[in-house]
Specification:
This protein is an alpha/beta fold and about 375 residues long. About 45% of the residues lie in helices and about 15% in strands. The longest helix is centred in the middle third of the chain and has 21 residues, at about 215-235. The protein is globular and about 60 Å long. Bound molecules: nicotinamide-adenine-dinucleotide and glycine. Nicotinamide-adenine-dinucleotide (NAD) binds next to helix 2, helix 4, helix 5, strand 8 and helix 6.
Length: about 375
């Protein structure tokens, strides 16, 4: 059975289609949207080796002409240089205004393909086929696209919504365990910020840290409820005028930890997990959240195999300084997303630096 979730937007609404084996339906779903015949499939060599042929077969069977291009794998290739390569391939293959770029990959491929599609001929169609848990529940939805600047992550970008997001949970079987856990951090985030029922269902599961130990029904719940949460938020606030900022729960301190560890030692999901632990405790210290709820959150993070402590040797003043460089800083004030009850958060820029220091000191 396919779960369909709608992202309702003033300009162009779209569907997130979730079903095991749905990769085979990609071509037909795109044909139903009456997209032009030319497709540029963008992936990386690892992902293409697993799913490239199946994707191309599905597209060609539905009448599309497909060119494909693999960018090298890794965050360090999320650059304007890679976008230039995509423009070259788009030109070689004469991509037109009606053509479509299909992103087959995790958030790195999704963000870059989205950005290339946003800017080629001032904007062509993009379809997102996420292959990591993180991309399925977060980055493939909502239209944030872009690349990194040498001085900072995601500093160059555009909003460009996909025409379709197709989620096939079968592809998670080849995803490395650490990447699966990184995605779980974002899923736990949705439980804390938006969906207490999702949180409770994950709490009730014996296992959460490896795909093969999690019941398929729970995987389905995780995907559908997380995608629904993201769709709800984006539908209410497409360009992050207000509400959408709640999706950055755990990301304020998380981004600082990620950048101070050189984006290598700690991956994005792990950094978000650490950031959620910190934000939860800050909320408790400010009298906004119950101690027992922060303990429930931290227990779930641990059950998902994610860290709850700061990496050794990370300097607290370094973290405090790094917070000032965050994209979320407004008029020099650091913005935090803090929980007030399970499934509900508030946005504040009134967190005293001493509280942040005290909380971080207790996280070694
Ligand atoms: P990723 O794209 O780097 O993928 C992680 C690794 O998994 C890669 O090595 C990839 O080759 C491999 N991989 C992917 N799918 C696989 C599969 N099915 N089988 C085997 N291997 C597979 O990492 P990610 O966590 O998906 O994305 C992180 C990126 O997403 C960051 O650049 C971040 O900035 C971005 N992001 C964007 C948004 C947004 O709203 N646009 C939101 C969150 C994160
Ligand atoms: N991942 C945060 C956002 O999409 O707004």
């Amino acid at each position: 059975m396919t779960s369909i979730i709608n992202v309702n937007l003033p300009q162009q609404s779209y569907e997130i289609a979730i079903a095991p084996g749905s990769l085979e339906q990609l071509g037909q779903r795109m044909a139903d949207l009456k997209l032009g015949k030319k497709v540029l499939l963008v992936s990386n060599p690892t992902i293409f080796k697993h799913y490239g042929e199946k994707t191309i077969n599905s597209l060609e069977s539905a009448g599309f002409t497909v060119a494909s291009y693999c960018l090298p794998a890794g965050e360090r290739y999320k650059t304007l240089n890679s976008i230039q390569k995509l423009y070259d391939v788009a030109l070689e293959n004469r991509l037109e205004r009606s053509s479509t770029m299909v992103a087959l990959g995790g958030g790195v491929i999704g963000d870059m393909t989205g950005f290339a599609a946003a800017t080629w001929l001032r904007g062509i169609n993009v379809v997102q086929v996420p292959t990591t848990l993180l991309a399925m529940v977060d980055s493939a939805i909502g239209g944030k696209t872009g690349v990194n600047h040498p001085q900072g992550k995601n500093l160059i970008g555009a909003f460009h919504q996909p025409r379709l997001v197709l989620v096939d949970p079968e592809v998670l079987k080849t995803l490395p365990m650490r990447e699966f856990r990184a995605g779980m951090a974002e899923v736990i985030k949705y439980g804390v910020i938006w969906d207490a029922e999702l949180f409770a269902q994950m709490e009730a599961s014996k296992h959460l840290n490896q795909l093969r130990y999690i019941k398929p029904e729970l995987i389905n719940t995780i995907l559908t409820r997380s995608c629904q949460a993201k769709a709800d938020v984006v539908s209410k606030d497409e360009k992050e005028g207000g509400l959408r900022a709640i999706l950055n729960y755990g990301h304020t301190i998380g981004h600082a930890v990620e950048s101070l560890t050189g984006y290598r030692l700690v991956n994005h999901g792990e950094a978000v997990a650490i950031g959620m632990v910190a934000a939860g405790q800050i909320a408790v210290e400010l009298g906004m959240w119950q101690q027992q709820d922060t303990e429930r959150q931290n227990a779930l993070i641990q059950k998902a195999g994610l860290p709850t402590k700061l990496p050794e040797g990370l300097d607290i003043e370094g973290i405090i300084d790094a917070l000032q460089l965050d994209k979320k800083v407004k008029n020099g004030k650091v913005r935090f997303i803090l929980p007030t009850q399970m499934g509900v958060v508030t946005i504040t820029d009134e967190v005293p630096a001493d509280i942040i220091r005290q909380v971080l000191q207790n996280m070694y």
